[in-house]
Each structure stands twice: as C-alpha cells, then as structure tokens.
Design brief:
Elements: E1 28-33, E2 60-61, E3 70-76, H1 79-86, E4 94-101, H2 106-114, E5 127-131, E6 152-159, H3 166-173, E7 178-186, E8 189-190, E9 199-201, H4 204-207, H5 209-212
Parallel strand pairs: 3-7
Antiparallel strand pairs: 1-3, 1-9, 2-3, 4-6, 4-7, 5-6, 7-8
C-alpha cells in the first residue's frame, strides 16, 4: 500500500512583519506667562488664556501658575512628561522671585526655610534667601500697587511642592505680603532669554536634560528679553 503524504506550506509569521512604529518624539515648550493670563486654553468668561499666546495644537500646561503670577510655564503633548513635571512626588524644584512688603530679616527667612503651619497643611522645608531686585526685570502691566510708606524687597524661594497660592500664603504668614510673584525656573529650565508673552520649543538634546536633571533650579545667567 502506498501512502501519499502531502505538505502544505504556510507563510512564516515573521517573514513579512510590518515595520515597527517609530514613537513620536515628545514636545516641550517654555512660555513666559504675563500677568493676568489664565494657565488654560479656554475660558467661558473671555479672559486671556494660553491660547492668546501659544498657537500650538495638542500641548497642555504641566502644572499651573495663578493668573496674578508671572513667569515660566511648561507645556507638553506627552502625558507622562506632564505628570512628572507637575507631580510634587518627583520633587522637581520650582524657583520663584517674590517681591514682598517690608524687608524680611534672617529670622523670618529661617522660618520660611524650616516650614510653616498654614492651617490646612504644613509646608515642606525649602530654600529662601533675600536677593536684590533683578536688573533684567520687565515692568508689570498693570503696575504693582504698593504703599509709599512701606519699603519693598525681594526673596528667592525654591519649592519642591506646589499647593494652591502657597508662596503668597507663606510670605503672608511671616508678615510680608506678596506684591509680585515670578516663577523663573522649573528643574533645569529657566526663563533665560525669553521675553514676556514669548515661548520657545526645546530641542531634543535640551529635552534630554530632564533625564539627567537632579531637580535643582536652573542657572539664570542670561537675562530674559523685555
């Protein structure tokens, strides 16, 4: 008896594998937010928003900055990167220049550094020091209202947390209300060379600084453009 055995050839599952998709590179924008601009892209009341300054689709603010505060806002289209920048658990340092009423002494600054009980929470230890008014500082629109009989001064504060209106509450707690608040750095990125209302996109090599950053504030050697 003859037995005939037939073989059927099936194409290999690996012979024509579709090309792997190349992941889309993340985008990260640095924006110098002016006073009075909401840190969002739409507002039913018609107030100024990020959309009035950043005409880039698909990016969102990583964290927030109050309308009455100025300075650095980061925007990205990468959800994971947005979370890492905004989430205080990642301890990304945020550096602020704060104009306050009066002239805090070293004891007041030490109180800031040690952490404050603000009632609903206690602030973490932070860096705080008195600084001179920056020579590169742009005029605010509208101008800051202050009492002529009360001197003003500037403090640099570096936080690794960011609760609602925290810096303002901290300076008020030590008896020196905030008059002007400017965020000048987030992690390794600063306002260097960035005019008010202007933005720029980071190159890939600059974006890679996030991976190697220790979370310290950025150097601010170059003056923002007015």
């Amino acid at each position: 008896m003859q037995v005939c055995v037939s073989f059927q050839m099936f194409p290999s599952s690996t012979s024509k594998r579709p090309a792997d998709r190349v992941p889309k590179p993340s985008r990260l924008l640095l924006f110098n937010k002016p006073f009075g601009v909401l840190c969002q892209f739409a507002d039913e009341a018609g107030r100024a928003t990020l959309k009035d300054h950043v005409a880039v689709p698909g990016v969102y603010a990583a964290g927030r900055l109050d309308a009455d505060s100025e300075g650095l806002v980061l925007l990205t289209d990468d959800g994971a990167l947005q979370h890492r920048i905004a989430d205080p658990r990642h301890k990304l340092a945020k550096t602020y220049l704060v104009q306050v009423e009066g002239e805090p002494d070293e004891a007041a600054l030490a109180t800031l550094r040690a952490g404050l009980d603000l009632g609903d929470f206690r602030t973490l230890p932070c860096a705080a020091r008195g600084v001179a008014e920056p020579a590169w500082l742009w005029p605010r629109d509208p101008p800051v209202r202050f009492r002529k009989s009360v001197p003003t001064s500037w403090i640099e504060i570096v936080l690794r947390e960011g609760k609602n209106r925290q810096v303002r509450r901290m300076t008020a707690k030590i008896g020196h209300p905030t008059l002007r608040l400017i965020r000048v750095a987030i992690g390794p990125w600063g306002l260097d060379g960035l005019g008010v209302g202007a933005w720029r996109e980071l190159a890939r090599e600059e974006l890679a600084a996030m991976a190697g950053s220790s979370g310290s504030g950025a150097a601010r050697g170059e003056r923002p453009r007015r």
